[in-house]
Amino acid sequence: AAEPWPENAALYQQLKEEQILLSDNASSLAVQAFLQMCNLPVQVICRANAEYMSPSGKVPFIHVGNQVVSELGPIVQFVKAKGHSLSDGLDEVQKAEMKAYMELVNNMLLTAELYLQWCDDVTVEEITHPRYGSPYPWPLNRILSYQKQWEVRRKMKAIGWAGKTLEQVLEDVDQCCHALSQRLGTQPYFFNKQPTELDALVFGHLFTILTTQLITDELSEKVKNYSNLTAFCRRIEQQYFEGHEKDTSTIAARSSKRSLLR
């Protein structure tokens, strides 16, 4: 039986307007979408030091009762242990397929977002450094930004992305979107009528890419090439976020250049 969900459950992320970056915004929105799909209310709390408060050093994280859990995968497991699951109706083959597509999104879209933020020099100087360090005084703002940049670039080197050009990264994004578009087809969700955690994850990343102002629109244009993916984002925005204006998790409250519906 499902355990009662506390009314004061909270999700923590960085400051929306001036600090949070594309990848963290996408990850946070994916968790918000997942919890909305489970019909589990959560209050979004923005903190400048959210990254340092997180047990894994990554956002978002949720604070439920006396427990703190960070990132979508562990949050899905935590929620499942409380009796709430979106993927119980899937058979073993479908569950394996869902996990494979989630890996694809994390390996391609999330990595591409991190690459763009920390390895594309123009984006780093004009967007990433100013936003990431915004809550802190000089020189701490620069020190923390360079520290994070070094950490991400070391990761990129380890997975073989450091030598990629921006064009190659955008091509990877296109391939990922093509695979997702093929799998979705004309269905409302990836596994037909009901959303799963895959839908939440894909929505978090694609919606954020489509609505975040970057130096150029090259990244969002890759997503816009697939009309069923943009329609999918609109559908989830309407179903799970519209009409939740009083709830701070609403997309309308996000720092974005536009809603998909306008």
Rg result: 18 Å
Please state the oligomeric state of the protein chains shown: single chain
In the CATH scheme, the class would be: Mainly Alpha
Secondary-structure class: alpha+beta
What number of structural domains do the residues give?
A: 1
Principal-axes geometry comes out as globular
CATH architecture: Up-down Bundle
Count of separate DSSP helical elements:
10
Helical content band: 40-55%
| N-to-C CA distance | 41 Å
- Total DSSP E strands: 4
Which strands sit side by side, in order, in the main sheet? 2-1-3-4
Give the strand content. 5-15%
GO cellular component, one term: SAM complex
InterPro entries: Glutathione-S-Trfase_C_sf (IPR036282), Glutathione_S-Trfase (IPR040079), Metaxin_GST (IPR033468), Mito_Protein_Transport_Metaxin (IPR050931), Sam37/metaxin_N (IPR019564)
Subcellular location: Mitochondrion outer membrane
Function: Involved in transport of proteins into the mitochondrion.
